[in-house]
Amino acid sequence: MNGESVVFWVSGTFAVVGALGMVVSKKAVHSALWVAFAMVNIAVLYFALEAPFLGTTQIIVYTGAVMMLFLFVLMIVGVDSSDSLLETIKGQRLLASLFALTFGGVIVASIASTLSSPSAGLAIANAGYGGHLQAIGFLVFGTYLFAFEALSALLITAALGAMVLAHNERWTPRKTQDQLQKERTFSNHVTPLPAPGVLARNNSVDTPALLPDGTTSIESLPNAFRGEGQVSKSNSIEEAGK
Amino acid sequence: MGQGNVYLPIFFLGLLAFGFAVFSVAAASFTGPKRYNRAKVDAYECGIQPAQAQLGGGRFPVKYYITAMLFIIFDIEIVFLYPWAVSFDALGLFGLIEMIIFILTVLVAYAFVWRRGGLEWD
Amino acid sequence: MFHSQAQGDLGIFGNDPAAVIAVKVLGIFVIMVLMTLLTIWAERRVVGRMQMRIGPNRVGPFGLLQSLMDGIKLALKEEIIPKGAHLAVYVIAPVIAATTAFLTFAVIPLGPQVSIFGTVTPLQLTDFPVSVLYVLAIASVGIYGIVLAGWSSGSIYPLLGGLRSSAQMISYEIAMGLSFVAVFLYAQSMSTSQIVAAQEPMWYIVLLLPSFIIYTTAMVGETNRAPFDLPEAEGELVGGFHTEYSSLKFALFFLAEYVNMVTVSALATTLFLGGWRAPWPISLWDQANVGWWPMLWFFGKVFAFIFVFIWLRGTLPRLRYDQFMKFGWKVLIPVSIVWILIVSVARYLRNEGGLESRNLLFAASAVLVVVVLVSYTLDLRRKKSDEAEEQRIAIEAEQEFDPFAGGFPVPPMPGQVAQPSRRMKATISSGAPASHTPAETTEGN
To answer: How far is CA C282 from CA B66, C207, C267, C297, in A?
Structure first.
């Protein structure tokens, strides 16, 4: 066995393990990590196939950017949430297996078609360009020019989508630090508001702070609790302290 | 170019670094003392009792999503810029013009996000 | 036919016998560890001087062994694994951080070809056509160490710190990646040894000054160092992503941070300061760029960068997060894109008309710097005039209650009266505004 096939069998196995781990993992973050692992191993395969540019790009774009986005999303929606197994789309399994079969068929067919004809080899493919980077440059910016320029439109779509999904527009301009400071200085409350009553035995924001005269300070509470009947009573705190 | 095993040294360096890191992580549990204390293994929250419930439902600003998405967009742009830069002399005026068009198109997305306040953090 | 500047042959790499590879691998590993120990020591001593202190000077001559002793001390500390940690990921995270930190140094050229054990070999572990991209790729895997450390600790501060620092690193990675483009354009190569070879007539710091400035700014952000050390903003986030790490696991993160510092400095040296080439007065000596001497120039330049890192830390206060992101996204990125356009046009003119693009580039850098400065001052002045306007508005706001002041639903300010909503009417029986409700009324409930 030469070096290349050793790399293939090791990294290929790791990539498959990563893919399986992604499916099997219960926690979404673990799934994302398995995918990242599989991606890195696929990049190693590219290196072994003498395509270092593709390999580094694979890591930079997929492992570094796309999977990072996935991790961010998982953290945004709550880090520990596991997948809901409830199927909301009718015939989901049937459709999924249909697509999977079709996709598998396409892959098998395309690999089979390359097997039937002898491969030209990298040296011939790169000949006349002076290296595979130059060859990539020449192909992307020459032969596949239209696809390349269309991609920029795709990138705009991605930005639009992200903004539509995740952007919360401000209604009014943001206050500067300076402005906030001035407002506070001219208000009746220069000092910070009293902290809620986090006492040794009570660790809750719905407990008002006790003022020196024994009364409670409503200002120590978040706005949501300032209504009637939402606040722990100071009497009960005092009684508990006795 | 006769480059058979340029990646082999990287593999060995990685192996050495990985071995060192794993050794350190493993050694830590032997070299240090073990004195159990319930408060010690609690999450650190500046003396306040840790609220475990927050972690599960704890949510983060969706802002990070836009940052990550923009990062992908620019990453892809950069990945195209590299082979273009390397074969710039060969591509000539044609390559220059098409890259300018590409950059300007991506800048449309950038300008849109900027204008709508997607780059603001508060 | 497409190699306009065929300097440096990559064929010299990958032919080393096993013994030489072993020596090089070990050498790089030892150098990195030594550099880390030295950098930590230098940092403490230099920052000490800058703060009118002496700094550690007890262990060994000039306190040189201080960081080694600190490492041993860390190893003898108890290893605490927090209750809520996800054990597997928690353990893997520091391993990822440390391994990737070491890996990036593999492609940095330390010198020209020398003879080791009778084998003529370049003073560089390895090189291939995309080695600068390899550095970027490994660095982007390294971010995982930080995100995972934050996530797996099962604690709020590390999680916030990890998320924040990964957002910071990806933001500055773009500026960093864009700053490479001009270098690639002029070197017509992405391999480190060829880039060093291409700088023989002139270092790129002279030719591509804006790229250099962008890169150095981005590298400080990328390594989470002051003034961009927001992930470790101790006033807000305690220790950031490594709050819950102790003992040798913490030491690994610390090691990774300093190794990364050395690596980005080495990359800056390679890309912009001519790599191992001797600086001007020394380069007149004809033995300056042969044999083992270049290693000295190389590490001299790296230490110059490290000194700047330390200097920054001793001088600048930490940025606020929004200022930091604003700087990355709204200044560094547009400036680098404009600069790339300028460079490519200049390069094209040189190729076509045989025009001396050097002068053009110098002029363009000057113009770019002026534009940035002018836009900065304009921004400041606009802010000034905005401030006067805002002050007027603020005074008005004191009389009239704005339920959406600052863009969010807010309660009335003291002295303001809210128009009670239906919900407020239901919860507050008395007619007084919420903030003025005496606390006693809630008691009699």
So the answer is: 50, 21, 22, 9
User: Does residue A177 lie in a domain region?
Assistant: no
Q: State pLDDT tens for residues C14-58.
A: 777 778 888 888 888 898 889 889 999 989 999 988 888 888 888
Provide, as residue numbers in chain A, all residues whose Cβ is less than 8 Å from the Cβ of B79.
57, 60-61
Please report where in the chains the tokens 């160490």 appear, as a residue. C145
Cβ-contact C172, C231 below 8 angstroms: no
pLDDT at C414 over 80: no
Residue A18 within a domain: yes
> A182 and C394 in contact by Cβ < 8 A?
yes
Contacts of A153 (CB under 8 A, 6+ apart): B105
Question: C141 CB near a chain A CB, below 8 Å?
Answer: yes
Domains and CATH numbers, chain B: 8-115 (1.20.58.1610)
Q: Which of A113, A119, A141 is nearest to A129 (CA)?
A: A141
My answer on whether A21 and A51 are in the same domain is: yes
- Residues for chain A: how many in total? 242
Q: Which token pair is A177? A: 């630090």
C239-278 per-position pLDDT tens digit: 778 888 888 888 888 888 899 999 999 999 998 888 888 8
Burial of B58 (0-12, 13-18, 19+ CB in 10 A): middle
Which among B3, B28, B50 has CB closest to C249? B28
**How far is C240 from C237, CA to CA, in rounded Å?**
5
Quick check: ipTM above 0.95? no
Is the CB of residue C241 less than 8 Å from the CB of residue C150? yes
DSSP string, C191-229: -HHHHHHHTSSS-HHHHTHHHHHHHHHHHHHHTT-TTS-
* Domain CATH for A52: 1.20.120.1200
Q: Which of A80, A95, A112 is the last residue of a domain?
A: A80
Structural domain count, chain A: 3
Residues A159 and A199 in one domain: no
Whether A31 contacts A19, CB under 8 Å? no
Residue C122 dihedral angles phi and psi, to the nearest 5°: -70, 150
In DSSP terms, which residues pair with C113 in a beta bridge? C122
List, as ranges, residues 41-100 from B with C-beta within 8 Å of A: 48-49, 55-73, 75-77, 79-80, 82-84, 86-87, 90-91, 94-95, 98-99
Chain C residues in contact with B52 (beta carbon < 8 A):
84
Q: Residue A141 sits in which domain range? A: 121-168
